[in-house]
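Re-run requested by the PI after the first attempt was lost when the workstation crashed. Everything re-entered from the original request form. Ligand of interest: xylulose-1,5-bisphosphate.
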Amino acid sequence: MQIDLSPYEYILFDVDGTMAETEGLGHLPAFNAAFKQFSIPWHWDSQTYKELLKTTGGFERLKDYRHSIEQAGNNDASWLPDDKLLKQVHLAKNQIYAQLMQEGAVVARTGLVWFINELSAHGKRWGVVTTTSHSNWDSLWKQVLESQISTEPAVVICGEDVQLKKPDPQAYLLAIKKLGADQTTCIAVEDSGNGLLAAWNAGIDVLVVRSQFFSDGDFSLAKVIADDFSQLNPSY
Ligand code: XBP
Ligand code: MG
């Protein structure tokens, strides 16, 4: 699959689902382990998590789930964790996530390492625009990616850096501001509809790499849609 990278100076990568299958192999098991740790009687299966992924941000996701139980108004709603407890659960989830990265629970998406090293060799720069927490990016980078990728990211924007998470364009707008770049010189790599909209609303072209939870997404706004990076044949 041809992708013409000649108009772009920067390739901006989303993290979860795009660089690695971190949602199903990292965040989801970590959420469930954190529920156990705090004796909260919740367990999310893949189908539930797919639905919950419509909300970006782990803490926001926890609050949305609590809200859905409240709305249903059945027995499960007799006791619900307050915000303070959900904050602790979220923190524990991210600690368990870091442990999973250390244990090798995820690998880079097929062809990702080749793609980044290849574009770097052609003088392009890359960055990270995610609305996951900084700690999650740091552990994925240190434990999984850094040893295989020849260059450092030119910019890293994470959830704590913005007030509004994807699909709001804030994270992408901040990235181009920090880079001092024009949006037309950037292309985003995303796996979700929310991510695609965030980049699109910032005026940035999008390459979609389909992932486990968003394989059936509507990506009609994307320039190119691939199943993984090994399908891409970039020109410079
Ligand atoms: C990432 C997210 C995150 C992760 C969990 O979105 O939605 O919420 O699922 O991370 P994207 P936190 O990669 O599209 O930016 O728990 O740290 O929020
Ligand atoms: Mg993603």
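Saved to the shared folder this time. The first strand starts at residue 2 and ends at 4.
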